[in-house]
């Protein structure tokens, strides 16, 4: 655990709540977190970071005003703890039964939040994970699943389903064992399980929760579970959890700051008060992303990002094959790392390019030292995702003065305006047609790139983003002097970090 123990009297305090991003990995959301932290040296920060195994290294250089980084692994070795006994076991069993019922019975959803907060206290006491890894939890789910009148009963859930679903919930609920923020403002930089410590902080200490969704977490869970290797009873239970968790997060957040208007629609549909939503766009420093300069001699499409199914590189590769049928000299250059566990997807994409006969022209070039080189490498920069928030790679490429072709997801259309071409997702033919349209017209590419850079300078600068969030933090932050006299700010993070990391 990273610790800078000296806190400054009077400095506003923010606890960032992250999942799979800052400070343990690269990517757009991590860049955004680093921008906020580096841009506000007058504030103090802690980070509660949900990670994979707990062995992930910190890959960002953390400034001195980041004091504690607590790693909460969702997988790997289970957290330390003990089984509850006596009344505590009966109380937790009853809460868990109400929790499961709320996930499966539309008439019982009001029980979700009270049951969740009872389970949160058990998690902090060290009993929830051990309970969920025991036979009693599995038996409770099996009994709930087989109640008359529940739709899931018709799918005939099996014991294997119960074991699988219980294990998935145990892992998803591990962040509840993190000590909830006790003062300042808790800022969840995504929805989902990262919000759990923040919700506990609202419930126990009335710490304001700020929620920023770059992509729509619930929508991405729906997309991911479409192809997940589980039977329908398991999917129904887990997706029910994510849906009710999203709704509770929207209800309890003091302020929601989506990165685009598309996300706002999801949040309002999920029960967020429209008066508590304030759209804040991502921003870049135009000086750090100057015009990219001369284009490559050969017609080249470039792409930058992490190699992940949600980026839909398969559609991009299929589109490129259509482009190359018209322009045999064309190349597709893909820049970005492959996250742990994503190797199979990358191999699938490489196999697709080979199967279609274009392996010689499709290159996976890995991480690049300077991301500007990735944008400069193409005549046109592509974005093929099936889900996005307000993508950094897009506005960075626009700042570099490159013409873009992007899929119409999330806040992409808001970012591009008239300064790029937008096509439907999962449509190789439309994507190829747009790319060919720009590759065949150098004057249009140049004019579009110039318009894109001016649009970034006018609307999407880093300075605007940082100043907006500074004002939000100062508006919401609970001062340390509002704590009970017996609480030492930051104490819990240092005490429990070792046990949470396994």
Automatic annotation (TrEMBL):
- The entry's keywords: Transferase
InterPro entries in the record: DUF3492, PelF-like
User: Which stretches make up the DUF3492 domain?
Assistant: 13-274
- One Pfam family, short name: DUF3492
Q: Which GO terms describe its molecular function?
A: glycosyltransferase activity
Keyword Nucleus present in the record's keywords: the answer is no
Q: What is this protein called?
A: D-inositol 3-phosphate glycosyltransferase
Source superkingdom: Bacteria
């Amino acid at each position: 655990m990273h610790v800078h123990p000296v806190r400054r009297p009077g400095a506003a305090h923010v606890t960032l709540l992250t999942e799979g991003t800052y400070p343990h990995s690269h990517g757009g959301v991590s860049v955004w977190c680093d921008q906020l932290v580096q841009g506000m040296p007058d504030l103090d920060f802690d980070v509660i970071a949900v990670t994979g195994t707990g062995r992930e290294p910190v890959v960002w250089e953390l400034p001195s005003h980041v004091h504690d980084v607590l790693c909460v692994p969702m997988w790997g070795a289970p957290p330390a703890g003990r089984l509850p006994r006596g009344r505590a076991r009966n109380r937790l069993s009853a809460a868990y039964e109400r929790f499961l019922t709320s996930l499966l019975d539309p008439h019982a959803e009001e029980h979700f939040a009270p049951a969740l907060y009872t389970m949160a206290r058990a998690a902090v006491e060290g009993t929830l994970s051990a309970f969920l890894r025991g036979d009693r939890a599995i038996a409770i789910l099996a009994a709930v699943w087989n109640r008359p009148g529940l739709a899931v009963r018709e799918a005939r859930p099996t014991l294997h389903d119960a074991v699988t679903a219980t294990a998935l919930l145990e892992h998803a609920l591990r962040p509840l064992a993190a000590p909830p923020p006790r003062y300042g403002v808790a800022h969840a930089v995504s929805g989902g399980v990262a919000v759990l410590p923040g919700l506990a902080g609202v419930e126990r200490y009335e710490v304001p929760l700020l929620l920023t969704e770059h992509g729509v977490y619930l929508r991405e869970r729906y997309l991911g579970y479409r192809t997940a290797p589980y039977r329908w009873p398991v999917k129904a239970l887990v997706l029910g959890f994510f849906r009710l968790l999203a709704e509770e997060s929207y209800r309890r957040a003091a302020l929601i700051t989506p990165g685009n208007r598309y996300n706002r629609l999801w949040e309002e549909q999920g029960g967020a008060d429209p008066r508590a939503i304030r759209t804040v766009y991502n921003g870049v420093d135009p000086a750090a992303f100057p015009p990219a300069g001369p284009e490559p001699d050969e017609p080249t499409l470039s792409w930058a990002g992490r190699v992940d199914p949600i980026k839909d590189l398969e559609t991009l590769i299929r589109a490129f094959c259509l482009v190359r049928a018209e322009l045999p000299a064309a190349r597709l250059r893909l820049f970005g790392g492959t996250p742990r566990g994503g190797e199979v997807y990358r191999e699938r994409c490489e196999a697709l390019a080979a199967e279609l006969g274009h392996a010689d022209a499709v290159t996976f070039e890995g991480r690049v030292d300077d991301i500007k080189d990735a944008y400069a490498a193409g005549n046109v920069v592509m974005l093929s995702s099936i889900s996005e928030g307000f993508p950094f790679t897009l506005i960075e490429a626009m700042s570099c003065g490159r013409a873009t072709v992007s899929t119409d997801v999330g806040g992409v259309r808001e970012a591009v305006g008239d300064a790029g071409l937008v096509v439907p997702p999962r449509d190789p033919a439309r994507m190829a047609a747009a790319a060919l349209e720009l590759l065949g017209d150098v004057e249009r590419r140049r004019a579009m790139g110039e318009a894109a850079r001016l649009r970034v300078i006018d609307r999407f600068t880093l300075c605007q983003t940082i100043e907006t969030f500074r004002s939000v933090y100062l508006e919401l932050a609970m001062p340390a002097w509002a704590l009970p006299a017996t609480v030492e700010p930051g104490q819990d993070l240092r005490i429990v970090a070792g046990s949470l990391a396994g």
